[in-house]
Amino acid sequence: MLFNSIAFIIFFIVVVSIHYLPLKWKIKKVHLLLASYVFYAAWNPPFVILLWISTVVDWFAAKIMSKEERKGRRKILLGFSLLANLGMLSYFKYGKLLAESFANLMNQFGFEYAGPQLDIILPVGISFYTFQTLSYTIDVYLKRSEPETSFLDFALFVTFFPQLVAGPIVRPYQLIPQFKEPRVATEQQFSWGLLLFTWGLFQKSVIADGILSIVVGDTFNAMYNIAALDAWLGVLAFSGQIFFDFAGYSLCAIGIALCLGFSIPNNFKSPYAAIGFSNFWQRWHISLSGWLRDYLYIPLGGNRKGPRRTYINLMLTMLLGGLWHGADWRFLVWGGVHGLYLVIERLLKKTLDTEKLLAKPPIAILSALVTFICVSLTWVFFAAPDWEKCGQMFESLLGIPDPEHGALMVISSFHIFMVILITV
Description:
By secondary structure, the protein is mainly α. It folds into two domains: 6-184, no CATH class; 193-423, no CATH class. It has helices at 6-19, 25-41, 48-67, 71-108, 126-141, 151-159, 172-175, 187-220, 228-259, 277-281, 286-297, 307-325, 329-351, 354-358, 361-378, 380-383, 387-397, 413-423.
């Protein structure tokens, strides 16, 4: 049930109407929980079972963990939560990739191995809600927070439908306390929520799925190398498309939640205006970058164990962050390139007085432009359907024509104008 579908609009009207009936708060919370299950079941009903498993496992793991003082037992309980959640994520999202990669590796070494033909359907939103519920058990294990006393509130935290399938990834302290008291949006909040939802819908449906998708399709699905100008416009268009698609969906989620009286954090803060790559990750998909920082980068040692270890930690974090986005080795490379950007940036900060340099407006503008171009180039690994298309696009960006067919012109003047207009 996509936000930009008639089915969701009807669903939303019904949910809001019931939410504002004069009912007890507990009944309203049960209604929101059931509505969240209905919303998720609309994608594929059997996968609701996975939500139940994550909810029940993490509820009991945290509950028992909080009463257990022995560190070994606490580790076992945390391990059980990690195994259950990451096990489901690994099987459903990466099972086919790993099976195919292993078969290809065996064939490379001369073994005739076909391997199992896995036809695995990916449960929508599993990457998002897995990270969200894991933050709860990890926080309880680290004694950053106490376990939740209300199973209903915890279940609603795991399944809250506005941000269930595409984020933002909300932490327990950001959402669970809001379930404790009745939530009613003021007239101003409700109006603002509808405005955010409408603007997010426009970004996703009109700009991302409409105008920019045409240019992206023409450039990244071309049979041969294309003209350099078209290639750069295609990369620029995809940079806009992925932002308006993702940020638009996040705005819809924030707006829907606000209409119900709830507040969830912003996920994007003008990321393409970032000055440097660290600054970019403070602005882009903020909930994910914060999760990776707090639950992966810092536990690995962060920047506390010397420069070399810091660079390794950055690379590992970004590599795993890349794989989180999709089950393809191209996403791993994308993460690796971003990790390399962050390492180079740290090396430059050690040798140059970057703070003083960036205080000069021309240098700051140039730095922002370089950041945008470098980030945009990495999106090729997202937009291209395979490695061959990746290579073809990078050749086109460098102005290298196809040996037999030359360089195709694929973008109309109108779409060139629209891409430039949207970018500006």
